Amino acid sequence: MMMATRQTSQRSCPPAVTALGVVVSMLILMASPVRGEAEASFVIRAGRVITVATDQPWSFEPGIIVVRNGLIEAVGTDIALPPDLPVIDLPDATVMPGLIAAATSIASRHAGDESIAGGYHAVDTYDPYDNYAMVLAGGVTTVHLNPGDHRLVTGQGAVVRLGGAMDERVLRDRSDLTINFGEAVFSPPNDVTYSAPSSADVAMPPAVRQRPNSRLGQYLAIEEALAKGVPVQFATWHVGEFVRAWRDNLPLRIQAQRGADIAGAATLVRRHDRAAYLVGGAEAHLVVDDVLAADLPLVYRVAQPISGRAKDIGFDPNALEVDVDMLSALSDVKVALAPPIGDPAQGLRLAAATAMRAGFSPRRVIESMTRIPAEVLGVADRVGSLAPGMAADLAVFGGDPVATTSHVQRVYIGGRLVFEAPKQSAVVVHAGTIWVGPDRRIIDGSILIEDGKIAAVGTSVPRPPFARFIDAGSNAFITPGFIDAHGHLGLEGDRSATPSDMSFAGLVGAPDVTDRRVARAGVTTVMVSPYKAASGGSQVTAVKTGGADRDSRVVRATAGVYFDLGAGDPMTVGPKLRKRLGAGTKYLETWQKYEKDLKEWEEKQAKGETVETKGETETVEKVEGAEDPITGTWAVTISGGPLPEAQSATMQLKLTGSDIEGYIDVAGEQAKLVATLQGKHISGHLEIDQPGVPPLELEADIVEPDHIVGIFSIQGIEIDLDATRTDKSDVEFKVVSRRKRGKDGKPLPPKVDESLEPLRSALTGHIAIIVGVRTPQQIETVLDVAKAFEVAVVLRVAVGAAVVADTIKEHNAGVIVPTTVIQRRRFLPYHEADDLSRKGIPVAFQSDGEDAARSLSLVGLHAVERGLGADAALAALTTGPSRMFKIDDRIGSLEPGKDGDLVIFSGPPFDAGSRVLRVLINGEEVR
Amino acid sequence: MFGRTRFGGNGNDISGLWSSERSVERLIPKRLIPTENSVDCSTSITPRRTGRRWLVRSTAAGAIGCHRYGVAKRRAVLATVLLTCGVTVSSAVGAPPAKVALTGGRIIPVVGDEIATGTVLIEYGKITAVGTNVEIPYDAMEVDVSGKVVFPGMIDPHSARALDVPNENLPVTPFLDVYDAIDPSRLYLEDALRDGITAIHVIVANNCVIGGLSRVVHPIGLTPDEMTIAAPTALKISVTPKRGFDRMTQIAKLRETFLELDDYLDKLAEEKYEESLEEKDEKIDVGPEEAIKRGHELIEPTDYDDQHRNLVKLTRGDMSSFIYCRSAGDVGHAVRIAKDNGFFDRSVFVLGHASYKAVGEVKASGRPVVLDAQLVHRERDPLTGKLSETFVPKVFADAGVMFALQPNPNASLAERYLNYQASRCVRNGVSRQTALESITINPAKMLDLGDRLGSIEVGKVANVLVLTGDPLDFNTWVDEVYINGIRAYRRDDDVRLKQLLGDEPPEVAEEGDEAKGSEQEDVERPGKNDKAESPGKSHSPGDAADDKSDEKPAENAPGGDEEGGSVAP
Predict the structure, then answer these.
(1) What share of chain B in percent tops pLDDT 90?
(2) Cα–Cα 20 to 30 A to A318, which of A368, A521, A645, A646?
(3) Same fold, A96-308+333-402 and A618-736
(4) Residue in B238, B248, B256, B299 to test binding to A, most A beta-carbons within 10 Å
(5) What is the CA radius of gyration of chain B?
C-alpha cells in the first residue's frame, strides 16, 4: 500500500531530510539556466593568487590555477599548463577564494508566531533562479540562510552557493539550528490554533501563552521543550521539529548581542556539550572568558551603516567605536566577518574595513571572510580556500582585495563564470610618471578613462565600481598616443593621387594586423595622406590605429588638404595654389551669401514679413555673332569608360573671354559645362544636376579648327570626348540656373562641391592646408599665398626649412620634418627639428610610409640623439601634430575630455631600454 | 433586465439534483413545461445565493454531473442558457432540435486534419460525423455555415472568476468545494460564452496553501449543478506564499499538513483497531505500531473527517491537483511535495510568467502546465538596468512541454480572448497546431476530459464554435456557440454586444414589455409545487421579497416594484 510505504519511509528518517534529498535530486536533473554553461575547465593566470589554505603557501605571485570540471586541480606559480585547457590571462588581478557571508538577510524571516519552531527551513526560501548579481558583485559566492531572528527558536539554517551548477548549489540544507537570545524574542504572541472546519466535535482550542517573557524564560523555554521530548500532540509540531533537530545534533547558531545573553549561551552550550557558534555578539568582548571557555567561534556582523536619514550619534558609547574595541579584545577568538544586518551580502568589505581598523592584519581579514566562515558553517572541505580538490569558487579582484578601491572583476562558482563586471566600465591606469603635455607631468599619478574619454588625471582619481585597474608600476611612463603627421597606413601601396573630393574615412574598417602592429608601437593616430597629391589638393584623414569600427577610429574625416608642389618653379606654383584657393574662396562666398540670405529670411520670417520670390529661375542670353573657336553647336561622340558603346550627343557652347559656358545634351539629359580656354587647351568640369553626383572633370584640346578631343574623368574613370562643330552661327540657348529660393522665398543652399568643401573648411580656419615643399623659396611663396587667403598652413619640408625659420615663425606655420635624411652641419650631426623647435616653431614627425609608422618613436629617438630635448621630441609626436591639424580637441594630450589614447612605457620613452608595455586606444587595450 | 437571470425550460425530474445528505435547505427552482414558445413561458427568477459557507460535501454529493441528464434536460439548459446570457431569444423557438448539421464550413478539428469544406453532424449532444461526405438525417436542422469556420469550444483551464470570492482566509481548506461559491449570475460567464469558451475549470484562486475542490462547468446554467460538466476535478495547492505568509511558512505549512495527515491516519487506525477489539470484547494484545498497522486495514472511506477526506484521496492518487508556482523557485518545491505525497502523477502546474526559468525542471517532471495569462516576462538586470523580454509560451513550446493558455482576467480588451492569446503565440514563433491545442485539447486533457472535450471528433461532446474566420485572426468573431449540441449563443441575437458596438440603441423599457414580463414572471415564478402552470398560484410574498433582496439592482428599477405590486395579494 502506498500509504504504508510512505509512512515507513518517513518514520525511519527525519522527514525534512527526505524532502530535501528529493529537491536536491530534482535539481540534478536540470541544466543551469544561468550563464556559465561553458565547460568548467580552464587555467587562470593571474598577477596574484591568494590561497588562504592552511597547507599551501599564503599566496603565489604570479599565480596559476588549473580548474578541471569545476574543481581546482592545481595551484601554484610554476605549473605546466595543460595543453587541453583554455588559458584566461588576468595579469592585473588578484584571485582569491569566493567570499563567504556567514550571516545574511537573503532569507527573510518567517512569519510564524511560534516561539519555538523547528519546522521552518531557511533553504525553502532559496530560489536558485533568482538573480544574485548584486551579491556576486561583492565577490560573495557562498551565503548562510537564516530562518529569522524574531523568535527564540526560528528554525534550521542552510548554506548555499549563489550560482553555478544547479545540483551543487545547496552545500548544506540543514546547517544549524537557530536560537536567538535577547529582548527581541521576549513576549511572543499567543499561539492560536485554528481547527477547521470547527464543529460541535472539533472545538477551537484556547490561545496558549508562549515563553519567554524574560531573560531567564529563554533558557527555561528551551529546557522545557527538550524535557518534553517529541510531543505526541500534533498541535505542537514545530516544537517536535525543534527537538528532532536538537537530537540530530545540528550545530547551534546562537544569535545574541548582550553580554548576559552571550554568557547564558555559553552556559547552555557547555551544559549540553554542543557544537555551536555565536552570531552578532556586540558585547562579546565583555565576556571573552566565557566565549573562549565554551570554544564559541563568533560570526561578527558589523553595525548597520548609517543609511537614509542621517542620525545624530550623540553620546551613545556603543556607537561606531565599540565594534573596534570589541574586535580588538577578541584576538584569541575565531572570528568570521559578516555583512551588516539588512544588507544582502554586499557589505562584507565594510566589515573587513572595520576589522582592519580594529587592528586585524590584512591576512586575518581575508581568512575571516573565506576559510574561517567556511569552517564555522561546516563547509570548509569544499569552499573557503584554494587547494587541489576544492571547488573552483573564485573571486577575481582588480587589485588588493582588502584595498578600499579595488573591485570585483569576475566571480566563478564551481568553475562557471557567474559574474563579470560590466564591459563598458572605466579603466584606471596608474604609473610613476604621466606626461600630460609639454608643460605638465604628474609624478605617481593615475588616469581615469570612462567611455573611451579621459575623465580625470592626477595623483588621486576617482575609482568607479568595477573599474579595471592597471598598475603600470612606479617606473612606468605614460605619454599620449603618438601621432604620425604624414603616413600612408592602409593605402596598401596605392600610389595614385586621390581626387580632391575623396576622404580616406570611407576606407577605414575594423583594425587589421598591420594597424594593431603600428598601435602596439605606440602610434595611435596616423594622418593618412596620399602618396601623391591631386593638383586640386587631396584630403588628409586622421585615423586611429585601434578601435572597434569606423566611427571610433576616424578622428576627423578631413583633417587637412594636402598640396605637393614638387620641384615646381616658385614662379608657377604660386599662381597655381592661388588659383585653387581662389576657387575655394568663390565657393565659400556662395555659401556665405546663402547663410546671409538665410539669416535675413529667418529674420523677416520671424517678423512676419513676406519675402518676394524673384524670377531667378531662368535667364536667356543671346550670344553675339562674333565667330570664335568655341561658340556654336557641336556634334559629340562620347565613348569608353563605363559606356558599353559610343553615344552621340549635341553640345552648345558660348565663349566669353576665356570662359566657356554651355550645355551638353545626351539622350535628353542636359548637363552644364563650365570651362576655361587656355590657348588650345580646355579645362573645366561638367555639372550634373543630381544630388550626390560630383562634377566630371574635363580636359580637352582643340586639335584642329572645329574639332575638340578630350577626356571627362571622375574618380579614375575616364570617358573620351570627340566633338565636331556643326554650326558656328548665332545660337540662342537657355541657361537654366539653379533656383536660389524656395517657394516661400526661403533661400536654397548652394550645390555642395565635394572637391571644394575641404578648402571651404580651410578658409574658415577649421583645418589646415599641408604643402609639400622642397626649397626655401617655395616656402616663402606658400607662406605669402597662405597669408593672402588667411589659411593655416603646415609645411612638409624636405630640407632647409631652418633657413627661413623666421618667416615660418612669423606665419605661425607648423613644420613636418623629414625622417630619413641624415643632416650634418659643420660636420656634426644635426637635426632640423631641434633648430625649429628652439625657435618656437611647432614640429611634427612623420613616417611617410605605411607600417613604417611603427618606427616613429625611433624617429624621435634619433632627434633626441641629435640634440632635440626629450620633451620637445614628445611634443613633436603628440601635441605638435594635434595642434597643427587642429585635432587637439580630441587627441594629443592627456587632459580630461580628450580621448583615452595612451602609451605606457617601461621608463622615459627615449631612454635606452625603454619599451612600450601597453597601448590603450579609446580606453581599450590594444592586444 | 440583464441584471436578473431568466429561466425557462420544461419540467423534469430533479430528484437527483440534490443529494439527500445536503444539510442546507435551499429554494429549489422547479422547472416548467414549455408551452408553444419559450419566450412566452419564460420566467424570471434569481438563483438563491446561499452565501459562503463551508459546506461539507459527502463523497456521494461529489458524483453530481450534468451528463446523467437526458435530452429533455438539455433542452431546459438551452432555454436557460439563452436567457441567462442576456441574449434575446425571440427567434429561439420551442424545443431545440436533437440533431444539427453544420454544413459547408471550414472545419478545424484541432485533432486531425483540417477540412476545407465539410459537415459536422451533431446528434443528441454528441458529434456523430465529421467530414466532406456526411449524410444528413432528414430530421436534422441544417445550418449553413459556409464561409465560416467550425472550431471546438475553447477551454479556460484555471479560473476563479465564476466564484463570488476567489479565496477563503484560512490557509488549509481541503474540505471546501467551489460548488458552494459558484455564482451563475456573474457577468464573466456571459462574456466567456460570447468569447467562445465552452468549458471553464472553476477553481479557487492562488491565495491559499491548500484550496478546495474544483469543477469544470459550462458558462451557462442557472445553478452550479446545471452548469457542471465534471466534478470534483482537482484540489488546489499553492506553493507560492499566500498573503501574509512567506515562503518558509508556506512550505512548512504544506509539510506540516501532509505529516499531520500521516499522524491523523495512524491515530485513526489505532482507534479503529481498539474499536474492533472492543466490539469483540478483547484486550489490546499488540504494541502500538502493530496496532496501527492492523488498524489501517480497518479504515472505511466514511471514517475520514472533513479536514482529511480529500487529502486522503489526493495522496492515494484518486484526485488530481493544480499546483500554483508563481516563481521559478517554486517549481522544485511543487515537484518535491507532489512526489513525496503521492499525487505527482496527477498534478498540473499552474505557472506564473517568471516560472519559465524552471522550464528544465518542468520538462524533466513531464507534467503539463497552465501558463500565466501574461505571456511576456520582463526583467531588468539589477546591474546594467537592461530590460529583457521573454515570450513564455515559446520557451515551453520549444521544450516540448504540454501547456494550456489562460485568458487574462484583468485585460478588458484583446488578452481576454483565448484565441488572441493563441495568435500571439503563433506570432512569437509557436507552431499553429501547438497554439490551437493549448486552448482546446490540452486543457481538456489536463482536466481528464480529453475524451469528451477539446476537439471536433466523432463521439465527443458537441461543444462547437462557428467562427466568422480563422480562430487566430483577430478580426474573427464568435458567430455561434453550440454547447451539448444546442445553440447557446448567436451573435445576431447578442443585444448587449450590439449595444456595445453601437449597432443598436440601448434598450428602453417599453410598457408593453414590462407588463408582459411581469405577467410572465407571475406565471412562471416557481412555487412550492412542481407544476406551476396556473398563474398566480404559486407565489408567496415572502419568496418575492427574498428573491428581490438577492437580486442585483435591476436596470429598470420600476419593473421590480411593479412586479411586486402585481403579485401582492
Answers:
(1) 57
(2) A368
(3) no
(4) B248
(5) 25
Residue contact A121–B251, C-beta within 8 A:
yes
Grid cell in block for residue B399: 521544450
A203 touches chain B (CB under 8 A): no
pLDDT above 60: residue B148: yes
Cβ distance of B244 and A111 shorter than 8 Å: yes
Question: Contact A30/B329, CB-based, under 8 Å?
Answer: no
For chain B, say whether A410 makes contact (Cβ under 8 Å): no
Q: Are B120 and B129 in contact (CB under 8 A)?
A: yes
d(CA A578, CA A589): 16
- Whether A112 and chain B come into contact, CB under 8 Å, resolves to yes
Domain boundaries, chain A: 96-308+333-402, 422-481+901-927, 482-583+756-891, 618-736
Which range among A537-546, A638-647, B334-343, B414-423 shows the weakest confidence by mean pLDDT? A638-647
A26 → closest Cβ in B263, B266, B336 = B336
| Residues pairing with B350 in the sheet | B324, B370
Residue B332 predicted with pLDDT over 80: yes
State the DSSP code for B41.
T
With contact defined as beta carbons under 8 Å apart, do B167 and B173 qualify?
Answer: no
Pick the CATH number of A96-308+333-402 from 3.90.550.10, 3.20.20.140, 3.30.70.2330, 3.50.50.60: 3.20.20.140
CATH of domain A422-481+901-927: 2.30.40.10
Q: In what order do the strands lie in the sheet with A843-844?
A: A482-487, A523-528, A538-544, A554-564, A768-773, A793-797, A814-816, A843-844
Test A33 with B248 for CB contact under 8 angstroms: no
Nearest by CB to B247, from A23, A30, A125: name it.
Answer: A125
User: Could you tell me which residues come within 8 angstroms of residue A100 by beta carbon, excluding any fewer than 6 positions away?
Assistant: A140, A141, A142, A143, A336, A369, A370, A373, A374, A377, A379, A383, A384
Q: Find the CB nearest A133 among B265, B341, B382.
A: B382
- pLDDT band at residue B506 under the 50/70/90 scheme: low
- Say whether B364 and A194 touch across the interface (CB within 8 A): no
Among residues A252, A116, A176, A202, the alpha carbon closest in space to that of B54 is found at A202
Q: What is the CATH number of domain A482-583+756-891?
A: 3.20.20.140
Which position has the higher pLDDT, A713 or B460?
B460
pLDDT value at residue A861:
86
Is A196 within 8 Å of B54 when comparing Cβ atoms? yes
Q: Do B329 and A19 touch (CB under 8 A)?
A: no
**Furthest CA-CA distance within chain A:** 133
Report pLDDT for A232.
52
CB–CB contact A121 B357 (8 Å):
no
Q: Give residue-wise pLDDT tens across range A319-333.
A: 555 566 777 788 888
Q: Chain A: nearest CA to B16, how far in angstroms?
A: 27
Contacts of A127 in chain B (CB under 8 A): 327-329
When mean pLDDT is compared over A105-119, A517-531, A679-693, A824-838, the highest value belongs to A517-531
pLDDT digits 0-9 by tens, A422-449: 765 688 999 999 999 988 899 999 999 9
Per-domain residue ranges of chain B: 256-311
B255 and A19 within 8 Å at the Cβ level: the answer is yes
- Shortest CA distance from B364: residue in chain A: A29
CATH topology of domain A618-736: Lipocalin (2.40.128)
Statement: residue A204 has pLDDT above 80: no
Whether residue A658 contacts residue A676, with contact meaning beta carbons closer than 8 Å, is answered with yes
Q: What is the pLDDT of residue A146?
A: 92
Q: How many CA atoms lie within 13 A of A323 on its CB side?
A: 23
Determine the distance in angstroms separating the CA of B124 from the nearest CA of chain A, rounded to an integer: 42
By C-alpha distance, which of A49, A9, A927, A166 is closest to A515? A927
By the CB < 8 Å criterion, does A374 face chain B? Answer: no
